[in-house]
Amino acid sequence: MPHLPRAAALNRDMAGHADRALACAYLDADADAGRDPRSVPVPFGAAAGHLLATVRFAPPSAASAASPGSRPAGTARPEFAAGALEVVAPFAQLGPRPLREAWWTGERPRLGEAGPLRFAATEKVLFGALDAGVGRPGELESATHELYVSLLDACARLGFPHIVRIWNAVPRINGEERDPSAGVDLERYMLFCRGRSVAFERRFGRGFAARLPAASAVGCDGSRLAIHFLAARGEARHVENPRQVAAYCYPPRYGPRSPSFARATYAPVELGSTLFVSGTASVVGHESVHPGDAVAQTDESMRNIDALLGHAGAAGRAPRLLRVYVRDPRDAEAVRARLDELAPGVPGVYLHADICRTELLVEIEAVV
Questions:
Q1: Quick one: how far is CA 63 from the chain centroid?
Q2: CATH code of the domain covering residue 59
């Protein structure tokens, strides 16, 4: 089983990128409670200390309690705070101390809204978030389509046409709903995928697969579909994995429309050529492997990431961050221990989430 480089290698890699225009780190949410995030030391390699966005991890009930009255019960919308965008990702953390994710940039961002989208943007990069209710039958597919149309149209109008990375939180992702067009029950993830795919095709035409970015789509509690993302003015480069079939080429058994994402995306060079690795699970070709064994699935996921980094020309680069989604909280400690062996010293946040296939227990994403 290949091991990723120690985190110390990260500093060696970043030493040549002192002008990196996009930096990220996990902060201790308790230690920094009530502290202006702009006063937190910027990670090595950031060009300047301008906070772009923060991501707070909290299950829907806790998120709504933290901002009472702002939204219906069990929800929390993206807000503006300390001159940046604050996003709530609706997942419970599985760890000894709560963390939040912070993104810095080399320029002071401007804040704005465009329809359902709230964003923070500089001249080079935009961090945005939007959400919609999907609690009633039939809402998920239409809401997914509408949010993605809004996202893609707004980014084009604002001058950030290249989507770099998207994170999706999908309520009851493994549940089923009746598909009225076919008269059959479909998994909600399949309905989400169809709504997303049609929106990408509307914007980019039949060849839209060439524009698909890195992404994750995992299941959450609550009743709101929540999306946050990064977009850029400059062109991004999307990468596939030699061990896996491209997700957008999956056979029909995985749904009426294949999942719309690339296995990884390089941000434009003006953002430091950061590599965003999509949510990666224990899938070889297009088949799930190691059912019922979270540690074996962790190993397979990391084999996939290692192969991807090699194919992308990033072999030997250490991830800056990991996000790890675990279906059963009882598996979290075993998964964490294994990742401490495979990626020593790499900061990670562990989140309770359902994975897009019921047999999958772990999904791992990375910023490299």
A1: 18
A2: 3.30.1330.40
